[in-house]
Structures are given as structure tokens and as C-alpha cells.
From TrEMBL:
<keyword id="KW-0813">Transport</keyword>
<dbReference type="InterPro" id="IPR027417">
    <property type="entry name" value="P-loop_NTPase"/>
</dbReference>
<keyword id="KW-0547">Nucleotide-binding</keyword>
<dbReference type="GO" id="GO:0016887">
    <property type="term" value="F:ATP hydrolysis activity"/>
</dbReference>
<dbReference type="InterPro" id="IPR003593">
    <property type="entry name" value="AAA+_ATPase"/>
</dbReference>
<protein>
    <submittedName>
        <fullName>Iron complex transport system ATP-binding protein</fullName>
    </submittedName>
</protein>
<dbReference type="InterPro" id="IPR003439">
    <property type="entry name" value="ABC_transporter-like_ATP-bd"/>
</dbReference>
<comment type="similarity">
    <text>Belongs to the ABC transporter superfamily.</text>
</comment>
<comment type="function">
    <text>Part of the ABC transporter complex HmuTUV involved in hemin import. Responsible for energy coupling to the transport system.</text>
</comment>
<dbReference type="GO" id="GO:0005524">
    <property type="term" value="F:ATP binding"/>
</dbReference>
<dbReference type="Pfam" id="PF00005">
    <property type="entry name" value="ABC_tran"/>
</dbReference>
<keyword id="KW-0067">ATP-binding</keyword>
<feature type="domain" description="ABC transporter">
    <location>
        <begin position="2"/>
        <end position="235"/>
    </location>
</feature>
<dbReference type="InterPro" id="IPR017871">
    <property type="entry name" value="ABC_transporter-like_CS"/>
</dbReference>
<keyword id="KW-1278">Translocase</keyword>
């Protein structure tokens, strides 16, 4: 679905992406991991078309994003940025329906409103439908914005830190939902900080360090403590939970 080739990007003289080559498989849940400032969010901005490609290319189904018209792009791609804010006290249903703007020309149909109800039900937030968005908690706002993407019904969903502000229950709930969406003809790609959530739920994992994509040696596991130290500059220990491997930071050096 998505192919990135020899992608480089700089803010002035500061290089923030270096020779990025990636392929994201269709209808799977992929996660990009790495420390703050390693280039993950910049990569997403380029993938979402929010910044122009300076060098290299990003292809969706073989075409650059700029080749798609506005309505085609809305059907192709949904993007949740890391930060979003509104100062207007719109009701939740009115925030979510804006995800249909490219298709309804701001005159929502009955079917559009049915999609809103379905998205709210899918995320178990129907009770928020008539609440003011500005009165919601950070976690509730995050779920509302994800519902806004779902009513758009794009083929690709990009999520920058989707579990931010969510408690443990909703983190697990949302990760299960994202994995489920990838089984329902969506290609889901997320930036995350928590490797354990990614290990438990994602199909594909990609790691970034110092503006580049890195992968472990051929015979090393993604949970290998030596590899993870090269990503996070922190010592890790592996632990088994039933049939799943998780990692625990070593705090002995503190």
C-alpha cells in the first residue's frame, strides 16, 4: 500500500530524515517506535502531505499523494496528529461529522449521520454524543478524533501517538480496535513510545534512531535487549507473559 524510497528531509540546515526506505503492508497494523526527536512525527507529516517532499518519494498504491484529488485523498488517507485543540464548544457528534466534509459538501445525509453513530458505537463512546467537546477529558477527546477518522472511511489510517492521555483500559481497548480495523480492509500505521503495547498488538514494527530507520541483525529478535538499547539508550530485560514477550527497563543505573 505505501512505499517510501530514499526519503530525506531537512529544516533549514538541520537534517531530520536520512535515506528512509520503508514499505508498509496492506491491511496490517504497523507501528513506528523510537525516542523523542528521532524523526517519527516529521515522517508522518510527509506521509500525510502536511509537508512537501524534498528528496525521495512516498507512494500510495504506486502514486504520489499529490496525484490524488481532494476527495480521492480523503478516501485514501486519514490522519490523527499528536496534538489537536478546539476552542469552540461543538457537540461531539458535530466534531465527528466533519470527517464526512469532503464527501457531503457540508450537507450531511442520513447515511453520514449513521456513520457517526456507528463510529461512536465502535469506540464505545455513544454516551459522549451530545457532550461539548471542550468539556471532555484528554482521553475522551482522543477517542472522538479517532471516530472522526473512522467516518471518513479511508484505506490508510495514520495515528501519531494514539494512546496519549488514555488510561490503561482504553490503551488496551484502542490497540485491540486498531488491530481489528486492520482486519477490516484498513491499513493502520501508528507512532508509539511504548514498545510493549506494540509487541502485544502490532503486526509490523519499525524502529527509528537519529533520523534513520534501523532494524536488528538478521538473527536478533525485535525484543532483543541489545537492539533495544541501541534504539532507546536504556538497558532492558525480557520477560514472558504467557506466550508474549515484553521488555522492562533496567533502573539499576538510576
Amino acid at each position: 500500500m505505501i512505499r517510501i524510497q530514499q526519503l530525506n528531509y531537512a529544516y533549514g540546515q538541520k537534517q531530520v530524515l536520512k535515506n528512509i526506505d520503508l514499505q508498509f503492508p496492506e491491511q496490517q497494523f504497523s507501528v513506528i517506535l523510537g525516542r523523542n526527536g528521532c524523526g517519527k512525527s516529521t515522517l508522518f507529516k510527509l506521509m500525510a502531505g502536511l509537508e512537501p517532499v524534498q528528496s525521495g518519494q512516498i507512494l500510495y498504491a504506486g502514486q504520489a499523494l499529490s496525484a490524488y484529488k481532494a476527495k480521492q485523498r480523503a478516501s485514501l488517507l486519514g490522519f490523527l496528529p499528536q496534538f489537536h485543540k478546539t476552542v469552540f464548544p461543538f457537540q461531539v457528534k458535530d466534531v465527528v461529522i466533519t470527517g464526512r466534509a469532503a464527501f457531503s459538501r457540508f450537507h450531511p445525509s442520513r447515511q453520514d449521520w449513521q456513520l457517526v453513530d456507528q463510529a461512536l458505537a465502535d469506540l464505545d463512546i455513544e454516551h459522549l454524543k451530545h457532550r461539548s467537546y471542550t468539556e471532555l477529558s484528554g482521553g475522551e477527546r482522543q477517542l472522538v478524533m479517532i471516530a472522526r477518522i473512522l467516518v471518513q472511511a479511508p484505506k490508510v489510517i495514520l495515528l501519531d501517538e494514539p494512546t496519549n492521555h488514555l488510561d490503561v483500559y482504553y490503551q488496551s481497548y484502542l490497540m485491540k480496535k486498531l488491530r481489528q480495523l486492520s482486519r477490516q480492509n484498513f491499513t493502520v500505521i501508528a507512532i508509539m513510545h511504548d514498545p510493549n503495547l506494540a509487541f502485544l498488538f502490532a503486526d509490523q514494527l519499525f524502529f527509528m534512531r537519529q533520523y534513520q530507520v534501523i532494524q536488528p541483525d538478521d538473527h536478533a529478535r525485535l525484543t532483543d535487549p541489545v537492539f533495544l538499547k541501541s534504539v532507546y539508550d536504556v538497558e532492558f530485560h525480557e520477560a514472558m507473559i504467557q506466550d508474549k514477550t515484553i521488555v522492562v527497563p533496567d533502573h539499576s543505573w538510576l
